[in-house]
Amino acid sequence: MIGKLIGALVGAEVERKRQQSGLKGAIIGAMAVGVMRRMGPIGLVLGGAYVAKKAFDRNKETAAA
């Protein structure tokens, strides 16, 4: 279940960069879940770290502006 949440967040980050919401983010998020499952716990950590870094950078950018 945590993997699905991280996959959804990865897909949302991809779509946020494109300034759109749509199918591409959902597909990339679903692929990310498959890759993370095959990588095991390391995949979950890497996916979570990617989302956390993007959120941290966005928060820092908002605070600076």
What descriptors fit this protein?
65 residues, mainly alpha, flat
Q: Main beta sheet: strand number and arrangement?
A: none
Principal-axis shape equals flat
DSSP summary, beta strand count: 0
Termini distance?
35 Å
The amount of beta strand, in percent, is under 5%
* Helix and strand pattern: HHH
Number of contiguous helices: 3
Structural class, judged by helices and strands?
mainly alpha
Mean pLDDT across residues: 80
List low-confidence stretches.
none
Q: In which range does the helix fraction lie?
A: over 70%
- C-alpha Rg (nearest Å): 12 Å
Number of domain modules: 1
Give an account of the 3D structure:
With 65 residues, the chain is mainly α. Helix content is 89%, strand content 0%. It contains three helices and no strands. The chain has helices at 2-18, 23-39, 41-64. The N and C termini lie far apart (35 Å). The mean pLDDT is 80.
Concise structural overview:
The protein is built from 3 helices and no strands.
Fold blueprint:
Blueprint: H1 2-18, H2 23-39, H3 41-64
Helix pairs in contact: 1-2, 1-3, 2-3
